[in-house]
Amino acid sequence: MERFLERHQDRVLGVLSGFDRVLFRGSLSLSYLNGLEAFLATHRVLYKEFGGLCLRLSGKIKEHARTLAEQHGRPFRYLQSSSASKEQIAQGIRDQDGVTEGLICVLSCVEPCQSYSIVRDRDKKTLRLVPAQRKGLHVYFYYQDREFGLMHVRLQTWLPFGIQVCVNGREYLARRLDRAGIGYEQRDNCFARIDDLPRAQAMLECLTQRRWKRFLDILARRVNPLLGVKSEFNLHGYYWSIRQAEYATDVMFRDASDLREIYPALVRHAMQNFGSDDVLRFLERRTNARFSGEVTTDLKRNREGIRIKHRVEENSIKMYDKQGSVLRIETTINNPRRFRVRREVTRKGQRCIGWVPMRKGVADIARRVELCRAANERYLEALAVVGWPAPTHQLLDPVSRRVVREGRPYRALRPLTREETDLFRAILRGEHFVQGFRNRDVRQAMAPKDEGDELRRRKASARTSRLLRLLRAHHLVKKVPHTSYYRVTELGQRVMTTSLNLRQIEVHTLAA
Fold it and tell me: Tell me, what DSSP letter sits at residue 147?
């Protein structure tokens, strides 16, 4: 990301990274068939009485929602269509009634949900409890929160009483900035300017260390009367997970014209040059035969501008321009089990530290932030070359000449040949943008068949070392001190990307 900012330092005000929208989901033990069966057995509820129990519990939740609205003097409104924008309705009520803090309204509507049904087993002549998709009433509690601004809690009124809490990180930051007296310019859901970016970044990162379970439990007990020791069934608390988290890196340009000048080139570069392997590396996924999923890229034009989105199975990274002067790179993780986290586990009866699939629970939120931030930074780093205002000969002519370094001559590069572009392509892989690359990384990318034979592997290693010395002599790569890693220089990024683009461009485009 540093190269992108250096490339556009005269146009950029700063960068802000953090959560945009976060959707938490709470699940009771009733969400699992075994848990519900144990609950029914504990309270001596027969299967033939299951429907009556559901109606009674659902009635308590509905009545509690109406009572809560009446106690706060707020409207309770039933929506005929679930497709109606509940957020817009809540905003309209808030603005009309001048609500500055507390409950805004309670909305209800019928929506699809996961629940249970009782079916008859004709062979065994018994009743069985099975999961089922059905439609049920959901209640939305909209709040103007002191910390998070406009937020909502969505509660399913039918078993298993699933709950969702949606908060917005940018709204949270706006309130922190107000309390700290820091000036800013907010447009919709982004910031065009913040007077003290380092402090703002520190405030936004507080969401990573926040004790989310305590905050979410308070909200759940407020809207669900079945929770707590005083309730009839003494349901235990929810297990909280992150259903969806959007982590955005906003590059704030000084003026809308600055972003408008370069954004079409950024979109064109992303569409033409970011292949499946690049997208996989942005999101830290394997690029070998062990990956059997699907990678897609699509372009969408909306009212604000153009959005490009890359999907790797359920997860995605996208780029779009917001409010004219903000370039946003946003990573969304819907399935965290595609990634791994290092934590304490039990293996063969022994406690140890190991890499295991990342959980949806809030316990792994720090690892989620680490992955999303790294993906956004890799994406921006790959865009650093875009928009360089120079004809190609000014870049390629100097490296196409023989050079002498420390008294030793080095041949000229041949930047348009297949051998040279294969080397450039191996070096410019997405995973090399953060840590760099080694001789082994380049060798395995260019000659994977040589790895199985010791003699050929050594020859390939020596050949790669000579090529890396050649690139160092032309100042395209540099050695990281005291390590075996190399990094691409700013000149190298421009030269190698230009070479790959010229190699792939169609003849009729050049001759037009």
Answer: T
φ, ψ dihedrals at 97, nearest 5°: -90, -5
Which of 192, 216, 240 terminates a domain? The answer is 240
The band of 428, judged by pLDDT with boundaries at 50, 70 and 90, is confident
Task: Tell me the three state secondary structure of residue 466.
Answer: helix
Residue 275 phi/psi, 5° resolution? -85, -175
**Which among 387, 412, 430 is the end of a domain?**
387
**pLDDT tens profile 50-71:** 999 999 999 999 999 999 999 9
Instruction: List, in sequence order, the alpha helices (H) in 286-364.
Output: none
d(CA 113, CA 81): 15
430 lies in the same domain as 415: yes
Nearest to 382 by CA among 439, 343, 431: 431
Check whether residue 260 and residue 311 sit in a common domain.
yes
pTM of the model: 0.77
Among 13-17, 302-306, 382-386, the least confident range: 302-306
Number of H helices and E strands in the chain, helices first, is 17, 19
Cα–Cα dist 16/216, whole Å: 26
What does the pLDDT look like over 372-417, one tens digit per residue? 999 999 999 889 878 655 678 888 899 999 999 989 999 999 998 9
**For the chain, what is the domain count?**
3
pLDDT in tens, 202-217: 999 999 989 999 999 9
> Are 102 and 1 contained in the same domain?
no
Report how far apart, in Å, the C-alpha atoms of 448 and of each of 331, 418, 426, 461 are: 31, 17, 12, 12
Q: Return mean pLDDT, the chain.
A: 90
Which segments within 55-99 are labelled E, that is strand? 76-78
Range of the domain at 124: 24-169+179-240
Going by C-beta distance under 8 Å and a sequence separation of 6 or more, which residues neighbour residue 382? Answer: 274, 278, 282, 430, 433
Exposure of 101 by Cβ count < 10 A (0-12 exposed, 13-18 middle, 19+ buried)?
A: exposed
Residue with tokens 């009733």: 30
Instruction: Confirm if 30 and 161 have CB atoms less than 8 A apart.
Output: yes
Give the Cα separation of 376 and 331 in Å (integer). Answer: 7
- Crossing angle, helix 392-399 and helix 490-504, to 10 degrees? 110
Q: How far apart are CA 154 and CA 217, in angstroms?
A: 14
Residue 420 CA: distances (Å) to CA of 413, 441, 479, 485: 8, 16, 20, 20
